[in-house]
Amino acid sequence: MPSTSGLVRPVKRARSLRHHLRSACGSARNPLSRPLDRARSRALLLAALALVVAALAGTGVALTDLAAGQRGAALAAAHHHRPDAVLLAPAYQVAGLPDGITRARYQAFAEWTAPSGQRVSATVDVDRPTSAGSVTRIWVDDDGRPSAAPPGAVDVTAHAVLLGLFVLAALAAPTGTLLGIRLRALDRRADRLWQHSWTRLEPLWTGRTAH
After folding, report:
1. What is the 3-state secondary structure (H, E, C) of 46-114?
2. CA 45 vs CA 14, 16, 20: distances in Å
3. Rounded CA gap, 147 and 183, in Å?
4. Inter-residue contact 57 to 171 (CB < 8 Å)
5. Looking at residue 202, what is its pLDDT?
6. In which region does residue 26 sit, left (phi positive, over 0), alpha (psi from -120 to 50) or beta (all else)?
7. What pLDDT is stored for residue 53 in this prediction?
8. What is the pLDDT tens value at each position of the chain, 211 positions in all?
9. What is the rounded CA–CA span in Å between residue 195 and residue 68?
10. Is there a contact between 123 and 108 (Cβ–Cβ < 8 Å)?
11. Other Cβ atoms within 10 Å of 58 Cβ, number
């Protein structure tokens, strides 16, 4: 059975949302509701609406990028092939790795058959030290030249998700900043009004005569 606290939280959120809606529209029944309270409710509702729009925009961008990435990956896959390459010499370790690459890289001179049927030989990357005569699978283009692997489903999906999150963050960050500025301004105004009211009413409540 669901816990009581798990049921109470959605109810409290719904009540809070209704409260801010009524307060923002000026239809709140609370006689103590002040213009500052209505301004704070409007700021919160506008920020919530902006976050919803940001989430929708991020989702839309991610889905659009995912569809484009899938089409691009399908097109690239149609022009990439994986023939078996026969190593003509033992593999050797590549010196001078690029920055950020810690795993050792190996290359070897190999020969394979291009999609056109022509025999091609060139230096290719291999996963580990291998001897001459070993067979490894490589990626080549339509001309039979070595190429990088086409983007896979994981790469396409990850790119779309990251792009969607970037759009969401780019839109949500200024929303949060503007909301914080607005709420701090309302808090300062509330403090000034409280000080002004206290200056007028404190002598009446305490019986002290203002000089």
Report:
1. HHHHHHHHHHHHHHHHHHHHHHHHHHHHHHHHHCCECCEEEECCCCEECCCCCCCCCCCCEEEEEEEEC
2. 13, 11, 7
3. 56
4. yes
5. 65
6. left
7. 95
8. 445 444 345 445 445 555 555 555 555 555 555 677 778 888 888 898 999 999 999 999 999 999 999 999 999 999 999 999 999 999 998 876 655 555 668 899 999 999 999 999 999 999 888 899 999 999 999 999 999 889 999 999 999 999 999 999 999 999 999 999 988 988 888 788 777 777 776 666 766 655 5
9. 59
10. yes
11. 21
Q: Which two tokens stand for residue 186?
A: 């309302």
What's the CA gap between 34 and 181, in Å, rounded? 20
Q: How many CB atoms lie within 10 A of CB 109?
A: 16
- pLDDT at position 15: 52
8 A C-beta contact, residue 66 and residue 151: no
Structure tokens at 148: 């990088």
Q: What is the DSSP letter of 140?
A: B
Q: Token match 């929303």: residue?
A: 175
Global pTM reads: 0.65
> Which pairs count as long-range contacts for 36-41, CB under 8 Å and 24+ apart, including other chains?
36/186, 36/189, 36/190, 36/193, 39/186, 40/183, 40/186
What is the three-class DSSP state of 31? coil
Task: Give, rounded to a whole angstrom, the gap between the first and last alpha carbons of the chain.
Answer: 66
> What is the C-alpha to C-alpha distance for residues 23 and 135, in angstroms, rounded to an integer?
74
Alpha-carbon gap, residue 47 to 195, rounded angstroms: 29
